[in-house]
Write a structure and sequence with these properties.
about 110 residues, 5 helices
Length: about 110
């Protein structure tokens, strides 16, 4: 599958994250899809058009802590505390708890 070229906002956020000596440009799309990072249209301060510091901070934390097998994104769902992120967190926890049980042949209703 071909990737879409990065937008100006994505390039700007990637540049800010790289100033922290981290890399994240190819992961921004995935982080937004998983709702660990706000949609790109919310990244800029409307008054100044500059990237919001909280977005840069979150992206830097995601870049620093995201590794295969780590559940750091769940932390951001919990921090956000919206109904939508609470539902995502609940579903992810249920899947994670049920996986080893299913592998052992135990089905919970």
């Amino acid at each position: 599958m071909t990737r879409t070229p990065p937008t100006a906002a994505e390039l700007a956020l990637a540049a800010e994250v790289s100033r922290c000596r981290l890399t994240a440009p190819h992961q921004l799309e995935r982080w937004r899809a998983k709702r660990w990072l706000a949609p790109a249209d919310q990244w800029a301060d409307p008054a100044t058009s500059a990237l919001r510091p909280d977005i840069v901070h979150r992206a830097a934390w995601l870049a620093a802590l995201s590794r295969p097998g780590r559940g750091i994104g769940w932390t951001f769902w919990a921090i956000d505390g919206t109904e939508q992120t609470a539902a995502l967190l609940r579903q992810a926890l249920i899947r994670t708890i049920q996986l080893p049980l299913r592998q052992a042949g135990i089905i919970l209703a």
